Amino acid sequence: MRLADAVRIYLATITVPNTRATYAAALDRLVADFGADTNVALLDREPDRVAGWFTFVWGGKAPKTFNIRLTALAAACGYWREQEWLAGDPLVRLRARPAPPDTSKALSRDRVTEILGSDTLLRERVLWHMLYESSARAEEVLMLDVPELDTANRCAVVTRKGGAREVIAWQTGTARLLPRMLVGRKSGPLFLTDRRARPSVAKNDVDPVTGRARLSYRRAAELFEIHTSQYDGGPYTLHQLRHSRLTHAAEDGASTPVLMKLSGHTSVRSLAKYARVSDDALRRYQADSDPAARRRSGR
Fold it and tell me: For residues 98-123, b (16+ Cβ closer than 10 Å) or e, as one string?
């Protein structure tokens, strides 16, 4: 299989435009530098060359960029192995670079609205809406099964850190999208992978109707980072959706007990990093509470 054709066929399987464009940046460079007519199977025989090429092209970039390009190539190689165009792993010499995410910063309301309203797969839209609106941890939401949902009351019971079982609740955005994703499904994990599960996957992580597996945290985080890499300050992390919701709730005047219930924290001290008011919120508060402004407006 020609490398150019292998890349074209793989990219055609990606339905999300932003993801396809991000992956194409790495794969098109691979074709340009290795040659369109190169047999994709030959990449197996030159892992040192592939590693050297990749490091030369992206080694000087930020760890996040380096890792996103590596993820794109790894995903393509995985697909090519499934098609039996590739036998081994040409990326065996490469490792992702440590890039601690900046989870200390909440996103602006406008940025959250932009992300939640973007054109992407329905599964991702439901997940991102639910994470923001409920402020639950991604690990908690991804472990939900369909029978655990109370769609009428817009809530579900999740297992928190430490094993406590608590209710999370969502809002209209999630409520509108959820039925479209479930399409009548009554069993299995709430969020599923795109493909059928391997035989080694645990039974309770597989939907008995479709045969697809539970979506992993790693894959969910990867998709979110790829999608948000286009934004200033991106890519973002799934944790920032939770952080942003708690910060916005604090700015809106939510009480400490409400914030603790939203976050699942049992210690007030743990809320400190989420209750930091943004610069915009501070300016809003000062303007709204300015005595002179109230007198001018006749209040």
Answer: eeeeeeebbbbeebbeebbebebeeb
Domain range for 70 is 3-82
CATH (domain of 170) = 1.10.443.10
Residues 121, 52, single domain; the answer is no
Rounded Cα gap, residues 43 and 24, in angstroms: 18
Burial of 143 (0-12, 13-18, 19+ CB in 10 A): middle
Confirm whether pTM is higher than 0.90: no
User: In 3D, which of 110, 112, 119 has the Cα closest to residue 243?
Assistant: 112
Q: Verify that 128 and 213 share a domain, yes or no.
A: yes
Q: Please give the chain's pLDDT, 299 residues, in tens.
A: 999 999 999 999 988 777 888 899 999 999 999 999 999 999 988 999 999 999 999 999 888 889 999 999 999 999 999 999 999 999 999 998 886 555 457 899 999 999 999 989 999 999 999 999 999 999 999 999 999 999 999 999 999 887 889 999 999 999 999 999 999 899 999 999 988 888 888 888 999 988 999 999 999 999 999 899 888 888 899 999 999 999 999 888 888 888 888 888 877 777 776 666 667 767 776 777 777 765 555 55
Cα 116 to the center of its chain, rounded Å: 11
Buried b (16+ CB within 10 A) or exposed e, 241-256: bbbbbbbbbbbeebee
CA angle 200–237–235, rounded 5-degree value: 115
Local structure of residue 178 (DSSP, 8 states): H
Cβ proximity of 246 and 135 under 8 Å: yes
